Amino acid sequence: MKNSNKHKIKWGFWIFFTPVFLWLFLLLILPHIELLRMSFAGSSYLGKSGFTFQNYGAFFKEPIYWLTFVRTAIYSVIVTFIVLIIALPVSFYVTKIANLKTKGFLSTLLLLPFWVSELIRVYGWMILLRESGVINKIMVGTGLWKTPIEMLYNDATMILGLVYTSMLFMIIPILGVMESLNDSYIEAAYDLGAKKIIIWRKIIIPHCMPGIMSGSIIVFMIVLGSFLTPNLMGGKSSLWFTQQIYNQFIIYFNWNQGAAFGFLLLLMSSLIIWIALKLSGQNFKEVVK
């Protein structure tokens, strides 16, 4: 009887494991292995053949590449920080202040915009902010502005779009952790005369740190690899490193160079996440739980 149960468990394990393994291997692991090989392969575009570091060397020779690389990293960190600053009070209000009915309504409002694609959401912002958009028409019609103002195609608008499109991925992990925070700790701190800043710094943020780091990693990776929002809302003046990768693959047909740029982006994101975990004192296993 026990042997038959073990046999059923093994078959059940393989039935569920095989599709997941094939999905990860064929669509994630195998393409990355091939891209890694291509990144060290010679390119006819560069006049090289065989094994070479020329694809990576070209990154450091051209200032436009590594400056865009650094710019993307800095702006991704800034966007992640802004999203965190907004997500913390929103999560606190939903979990600790709002009643049960209001909590469900607010949760629906948070999820509702993400039922449509990122492209539709970005175009929604473009309709609002463009020179002939809704905001300009209202401002000119009320006399607050004399002439329409072009609010698109700059870094501030690009950051606004990135914050909006990635907000949910920070709120959800923090909501899950903050829900488990015992309200009596906050009430006791209030009774003992602690200020709100002290309560946030000593009680709420340390308790929510696994959720904060988990959300920060997700948001940072999404923003770093974003293509639509920087391209549509930032325009040509707001270069993003994913645009350089796109140019190498699609415009120049230089897949070897594009593969090298892709792995440089992966290494940069992994390094920044590792530094953030070390500075915050968090364990990666606890963050991904």
Give the total of beta strands: 0
Please state the average pLDDT score. 85
SSE succession: HHHHHHHHHHHHHH
Q: State the separation between the terminal residues, measured CA to CA.
A: 35 Å
Provide a descriptive summary of the structure in words.
Helix 2 packs across helix 13 (255-280). Helices cover 77% and strands 0% of the residues. The protein has 14 helices and no strands.
Features:
289 residues; mainly alpha; 77% helix
Give me a quick take on this structure.
The protein is mainly α. It has helices at residues 2-39, 54-61, 63-97, 100-111, 118-129, 134-142, 155-166, 168-178, 183-191, 196-224, 228-234, 241-251, 255-280, 284-287.
Task: Spell out the blueprint of helices and strands.
Elements: H1 2-39, H2 54-61, H3 63-97, H4 100-111, H5 118-129, H6 134-142, H7 155-166, H8 168-178, H9 183-191, H10 196-224, H11 228-234, H12 241-251, H13 255-280, H14 284-287
Helix pairs in contact: 1-13, 2-13, 3-7, 3-8, 3-10, 5-11, 7-11, 8-10, 9-10, 10-13, 12-13
